[in-house]
Each structure stands twice: as C-alpha cells, then as structure tokens.
Amino acid sequence: MTDRALLVCDRAPELSPLARLQATPLGPPPCLGTDECPFEPQRLIKIANVRALARYPSALRTLIRLSFRAEELADLTTQARKNGPEEAARTFIAAHPSVASLGEVRVAVLLPASTDREAYEAHSFESAALLVEREIEAERASRAAHFKVEVFDDGCSAPRAYKYLTDALGTGEYGALSAVAGPACGAAFADVARQSPAHAMPVLAYSPQAPPPPTATGLALLAAGDARLHTELWASLMSQMHWHRLAVLSETATRAALDVVRLRDYEVAHSELPDDGSGVHEELISQWAKRTAEANSRIVYACLEDAREVRAALCAGHGAGLTPGAGAVWLLPAALPAGWLRAAPGERLACSAAQLAAVAEGHLRAKPAWEAEWSPQARDAWATRCAGCVPRAALLYDTLKLWAAALGRLLKANPAAIDDLHRPEHVRTLIDDATSTEFIGLTGLFNWTLSDGVHARTTPLVLQQWRNGSYETVGRWERGALNLVPGALRWFTSDGRVPDDGGERCGLRPLADLLRTDCRTAFIVLAALLLSALVGALAALALYCRRRADREYRAHLEALRLRTYGLKPGGLDRWEVPRERVVINRKLGTGAFGTVYGGHALFAEDRGWTAVAVKTLKAGATTEEKLDFLSEAEAMKRFDHKNVVRLLGVVTKTEPVCTVMEFMLYGDLKNYLLARRHLAAAEVGLNGISTDEAAEEVSPRRLTAMALDAARALSYLAQLRYVHRDVAARNCLVSAHRVVKLADFGMTRLVFENDYYRFSRKGMLPVRWMAPESLALGVFSPASDVWSFGVLLYEIVTFGSLPFQGLSNSEVLARVKAGHTLELPTGLKPQLEGLIKSCWRQDYKTRPAASEVAAFLADSPRLLAPCLDVPLDSMPLDADPPWRTARDRAEARWVSWAAPASAATDTTYLSDAPPGEGDAFLPEPATP
Q: Which annotated residues bind ATP (predicted)?
C-alpha cells in the first residue's frame, strides 16, 4: 500500500479480515461480539399479519421468540439474494430444526389466610396445593407442560380476590392461568364466579358453594357439591319430624345456599348478618335470639361460615332460653374447623365454656359422605402424604389433580392450546373433559351432575348428631330422600320425646299441620277458601242469570223455528248492535230474504257514523230462509279480507232481524257491467284505443283487476276451507274505489277432512254457474267454486250476458251433466280461453286452485278484454215457490232478469224499487 490515507467502510470491520489492517477505527463503538452491536446500523424488523396473529396467538409467541445470530443472518441474506426469499426461508428452516420446550400452565388457589374469620384451615389447603405441584412436576415423562400452583391469600375478601384476576391481566400472567380454585369463603367465591365470564376463567370450588348466576354457570365446577343440598336435607328432616317453623341466622356468604323453595315455607325469624368487616355482630345476634325465643321457634338453623359467629349464636341462644333441655334443636354447618367449640385467645363470649357446650349438645350437622365415612387407611395415607393437613384439604388435592389431568389431555391433543387457554372452545373442552372422564381420588369417585346449568359433584350427605364430645351418624340423605337410622336420634327434652316446633295450639291446628304453617296462616287460608266459595256462588248465580237470559233469547228464536237446526246465535253476541244505533234512510233493493236498505250506523262514539247496507229478514219467511239468513252472518263474522264484504254487526234481539254490512257504492258487478256495456261497445269501435275516463271504466286493465279481486276472495275462502257455492257477477259488489268484493254467503258452507260439502236439502240452485259434480251428485268443493269462477269470467268479458242464453234451466242441467260447457265468444285472448277451459275441466281434481288462478291473473294485468258478440235477449223466470205473491214475483223479475235460478237464495240484489208489501223495517207512509 502507499503512504496515502485510505478510508475503508464496513458494517463491522473488527469482525472481518479488515481487522488485520493497522487502521484507526472511526465512528460508533465496536461490536461486543458476533451477536451484539451497541449501534446496529441494520435493524431486523419482524412483519406479520395482525389479524392472523390475533386468531393464532401461538404464532405470535413463536414470532416473538424468533432470533438470529450474525452468521445466520448473513447466510440467510446471501441465500435470499441468490435463490429468492421463499427458497432461502425453506433452506434456513430445514437447517435449523425447532427445539421443543415445555410451556407453563398455572392454577391460582385463593385461600383465606390473613383473616380474623375462623372459616377454613388455610395452611392445610396451601400444603395440599403445593403437594399437587410437586407430584406433577415429578412426573417428567408424562407431563405436557410445567404445572404450577400459585397460592394467593384473599383474606375472605371479595374485592381482594377479584383484584388478583385484574392484576394477572396487567402482569402478563393471565395467559398461563388456566383456572382459579376458590375462594373458599362464599361471598368472595360468588363475586369471582360472577365475573368469570368476562375473563373466560374457569372457577373450581373446593368448599360447598351455591351455583353462580346463570351467565357464569358454564365456567363453574362445584367440586365440593351444591351447598343448597344441605338446606334440602334440613327440609326433609323437618318434614319427617312434622316441624313447620324455623328460625334462621345467616350471612351474606351463605345467602345463596338458603335459596330453596322448600325451606322458605318454614322460616319464621330470619336475620342476615352484614358483611362489613367489623367482626362478630354480637348485638345483632342477640336480638335475633330474642326474637326467636319470643316467636317460640325451637328449630334453629345457624347457616354461618365463621366459627366465632356460631359460638356467639349459641351463647345468645343460651341467654334467650334456646337450650336442648327447653326443646330447642340446633342445626349447624359441617365446614367448621376442628376445635370450633373452644374460644379463641382473647375472645370474650356471652356465656361460659360449660354453657356453650350444653347448648351445643345434641346439635345436628350434614357432612359429605366421603369425609364422614373416610376409612382409616385413607386417613393414614393422606396424613402420610400431607403431614398436618385436615381431611377437607384432600378435596382440594383431588380437584387440582383432576384439573391437571384434563389440562394434560388437552395439551397432548392440541399443543398449541397452551398459548390460548382462554379460547372458548378450549375452556369448554377442559370443563367437558373434567366432568366426563372418570376420576377416582383420595375422596372417592367424582360423579358430576348438571344442576341449574352448573356442574356439581354429587355425593350423599350424612346426618350426624353431637353427643358427649363426638359425632354419631343418625341418617343418610341421598337422591332427595332422607333415611334416618331407627332410634339413633336422641332428644334432650325433659321427657325425652321429639320436641315440637313451638307452634301455637288452636282449633285450626289440623289444617295448619296439613299446610305446614301456623294457626294464623291457616286462618287466612280458611278465610280465603270461604271467600273463594262466596265468589264461586256469585259466579254461579251470574251464570244462572245468563243462562236464563239465553233461554229467553232462545225462546225468541223458537218463534223463528231455528232452535231445532242447531244454530248457535250466542256466537253473534259480540256483533250485536243496538237497534237505536242503526239509521235507515233509503231502500237499495229487494232480495230473497227481504229488503236491503242503505243508512248509517254508530259502532263507537269516537268513530262517528258509518255508511252501511242493512239486510232484513222479511215477514213470512220460511224456516229454511230464516236459517240461511243467520247462517250467512255466522259465516261472514269469520272473514277478514279486502275482497270479501265485511260484516259490521247484527240486530237479532229486536224485530226485524237484520245484518249490517259495509256499503258498496256501485252495487253488484252484473249491473255495473250492464250499465257500461255501451262504453265497451264504443271502446271496441275505437279498436282498443282509450281516449277518455269513460273508456277507462271498461279497459282490459279494469276488467282484469275485477276478476283478480274475485279470484283472491275465492283463494281466501279456500284457505279457510269454505265453499261459496254461488259465485256469480250478481254476488260480487263494487266499492267506491272499484274494488270487487265477494258477497252473499247464504249458501257458503264449511268443509272438513273431505274438502267437499254434499248438498242434501231440496232448494233452488244457480244451475247455470254450477259444476257437473254439483249438479249430478250435490257435491260442492273449492274446485266447484273454480268452475263458477270460469262462468264469472264469461260474464265479465261479455258485460253481463246470461250464461247459456236461450236455454231453460232444465236444458242447462242436461247439457252440463252431459259434459258440455258454455260456448266462448269470439275475440278472446288465447291465454284467457285456456284459463276458462281449465276452470271447466270435467275432472274437478285437474282444475287449477283459486290461488293459482289469482297468480295467473296477477301476471297478466290486461288479460280480459270486452267480447260483445253474444245475444242480448233474456229468458222468462222459472216457476216461483207458492208463497210468493204477484208483487214478489214482479220485484224478483225486476231485480235480476239474468239470474232466475238463484233468485231464491240471492241476498245482495241492489235496486231503486219502492218498498214491498212485506217490509216492516220502515214506517208506513203517511196517508194524505
């Protein structure tokens, strides 16, 4: 080299051959090694898909742990430049296989260590929890992860216990925390379990607890059983002892355990001690004991966790006279620590030790069968394994073992689950595995039941009695039944008999015993029964009066000779309109039943007067006509469709009987078409070109819309399984808005499972509109209505032309029965001709349904067009019934010259004719 100055640039010259040069380094300090440079000029940035990493946290943790040495990075860079990034990555992964490392899962055990409450032996539970960790860590061959137990002192405080969970979220320990065991105290457990869904955190109860709220039941495992079962045991005991009164002293921690309907019926004096952290509430306990003694309650249940409060309750009971010698029976919790009868150092009781022992003599408790019946071998094995641990700590040991086994199976099947233990499917897998896999621990076999949505271990309860310093088994409660050992219970009353519950003696005592209550409540029940009997008598009297009124009403109908036909006029009571609310102002026409009037009716004060049509039953009507008249109203009250004339009310309790229906401005469709026939002729002359509003009246769109309205009405009736039997233009009414509505339901009948109605009564029928099967066999069905609808289409396109023009009714009958149909006019559209012919098929099963016809017409809004190439002459009426007068026959001819065969059953003809001789609805005209 020359003597000139030379500047050499390199990323790390001290790590390259340039280091042999005798040169002065410039710039940042040198690298400390091959993997660490204080001032790295080339930073390694890891880029990832955030959404994908959110779904796969295992990939995120792998990416975080990913690191490169300088040589590896240099080699990876060289390969990327030479072979491309993807090939370089594959080569690098193949050359650097992953090294498996065990992760870590934890279970937090919440213990009441630093608390003044004498509730649980925290040191025993802590020893049992740590023992589980040591034993599982010793099983190196089978473990899938490091199992750690983290013990936390909650001090029986709910805020403190919950704060542990929130702190775990902030310290990064939440991910490895698979479950929380405890807290042991009821109030703290309830709060932690209530909040568990927010953290997706399973909660394991190693002390008897009640189920959490429904939102959290899926995450709770009650390994010590459901605490409410103890209360059910006491309810069963009281039932067998015939006790009905109970005094209860509880606290916030045990409130949920008392939430049993069976026990609530026995409570007389109940006090709940507050959870304010102020220690033993001696004053409140003393007041409760006094109230209990004043109420003469002798069955006393101290549902408490704190042994200090139990001792205070016993002393208060001694002061109030609630002693076994006086007939008091004390029910105490089974989870009290050993030596609970001895006062703690510095504790001042309201009674002496001897008095305390005297009150406690003979008390009862309910203990889990596994603990009460634990064999000496199991006790010795537990004492050897966990020196100084109480038997109840073995339950925590088994619970943690059970959970660790479920974790092991989950991680073995899905190793990636260790990075996302709180995923809902992983939590469900753990709980399902723990409750469905057979597990036998030191406390026996774990059998689980699903009660109110929560998994609880099922175990029998043993009823024990304290006698002479030890407990004796006196009964066993299993599967909802309490079996007492005969003669095992001892009572310390003066006569040695079973004490009573202190209930008062009265004349209603048998009733009170039957109802499991006191005399006062029995008196109230008896009074309620007598009051109910009085109300029942009044109701019977009202029913009698109603039936009497009904009999008078039926007597009124008897005059109409309707009773023998089985009609139920009472079904029209809801539609009854007072006669004075119907005002008649004009006559619209005369029909088969009587006269049709126009007027107004007042149905509600706030609705004003409504325009209506009033149809009356004429004097001298036959029995069949009377029946058809009311039957029409019976049918119409069931219909509610925009294309069916609505029934608005009836007047049946005063003469004349009439029906009130909605008013249709343009009358029946037949007369509507006849009145506009000249417009149709003019329209045809203009070759279908509509030039004014009058032509619009008879346009194809208007005609098709009218036919569609009628088809929709028939479809509605078919859905309700009704057959109209008289579908014709004269029975279709036109509203002010040109909406066609089907009317005249005097012949309408309800069909049942056979979908047809067989007509057996002789009468005048509209033969020109009837189907062949109706004429031949008297059978009517929705298909026969479709045949009549085909004739209606003929009437519409011909603008009111009479079907079978020029033929008598007898000739029409013979022609249709022979298989012939109407001759269609020329000029029909092929689609319309096909539709009409499909309606006239001889086999009624092949005819289209009314709904199909309506759909076809809706798809072709201009299908119907005027076809006036038909004769206009009419035919004379057939013979009328003998009761008709010459005036009746003349009015019938004037009203409908086009429908002689159905005149006897038509009820919707509208005209401007003067009143008839038989009309009694309007006053007689005044004589000049």
A: 615
Contact 732, 710 (CB under 8 A): yes
The annotation status of 412 as a binding-site residue, yes or no, is no
Look up 573 and say whether it is catalytic.
no
Question: Which of 793, 815, 802, 799 is closest to 873 using CA atoms?
Answer: 802
Residue-range domain boundaries for the chain: 44-94, 104-225+374-460, 228-368+462-484, 563-662, 669-859
Please write the tens of the pLDDT for every residue from 592-648.
678 899 999 988 878 888 999 999 888 777 666 777 777 788 888 889 999 999 999
H/E stretch holding 129? helix 122-138
Say which DSSP state 645 is in: P
| Rounded CA separation 427/402 (Å) | 15
779 and 773 in contact (C-beta within 8 Å)? yes
Structural contact between residues 912 and 774, judged by C-beta atoms closer than 8 angstroms: no
Residue pLDDT, tens place only, 428-453 = 999 999 999 999 998 989 999 988 88
Report how far apart, in Å, the C-alpha atoms of 241 and of each of 317, 498, 534 are. Answer: 22, 8, 36
- Average pLDDT of the segment spanning 7-13: 69
Supply the pTM of this predicted model. 0.52
Return phi, psi of residue 303, to 5°.
-90, 80
Which residue from 118, 126, 270 is spatially nearest to 185, judged by alpha carbons? 118
The C-alpha angle with vertex 880 and arms to 878 and 885, in degrees rounded to 5, equals 135
**Cβ 366 vs Cβ 461: under 8 Å:** yes
Of 226, 501, 518, 726, catalytic: 726
At position 90, the amino acid (one-letter code) is R
On the question of a common fold for 104-225+374-460 and 669-859, the answer reads no
Q: Is the pLDDT of residue 64 over 80?
A: no
Per residue in 748-787, pLDDT tens?
666 544 444 444 444 567 889 999 998 888 888 999 999 9
Instruction: Report the alpha-carbon distance of residue 911 to residue 206 in Å, rounded.
Output: 91
Measured CA to CA, the distance from residue 807 to residue 791 in angstroms comes to 15
Integer Cα distance of 299 and 331 in angstroms:
8
Residue 754 CB: number of other CB atoms within 10 A?
Answer: 9
Residues 6+ apart with CB under 8 A from 366: 230, 233, 234, 334, 461, 462, 463, 464, 477
Give 669-859's CATH code, choosing from 1.10.10.10, 1.10.510.10, 1.10.3720.10, 3.30.70.1130: 1.10.510.10
Give the C-alpha separation, 782 to 761, whole Å.
20
User: Taking the mean position of all CA atoms in its chain, how far away is CA 305?
Assistant: 39
Give residue 525's Cα distance to chain centre: 35
Q: How confident is the model at residue 60 (pLDDT cuts 50, 70, 90)?
A: low
Distance CA 649, CA 657 (A): 11
Measure Cα distances from 522 to 4, 293, 530, 539, 682 in Å. Answer: 121, 22, 12, 25, 91
Copy the structure tokens of residue 134.
């040591």
Chain-centroid distance, C-alpha 823: 59
Q: Is the pLDDT of residue 116 over 90?
A: no
Give the dihedral sign, CA 163/166/172/178: positive
Cβ-based neighbour number of residue 127 at 10 Å: 20
Q: For 172-325, where are the alpha helices, taking DSSP H only?
A: 186-199, 228-241, 261-264, 282-294, 307-320
In a 10 Å sphere around its CB, with 0-12 CB exposed, 13-18 middle and 19+ buried, how is residue 922 labelled? middle
CA 220/CA 544 separation, integer angstroms: 60
The neighbour count for residue 631, using CB atoms within 10 Å, is: 18
CATH 3.40.50.2300 fits 104-225+374-460, yes or no: yes
Q: Is 827 helix (H, G, I), strand (E, B) or coil?
A: coil
CATH architecture of 228-368+462-484: 3-Layer(aba) Sandwich (3.40)
CATH code given to domain 563-662: 3.30.200.20
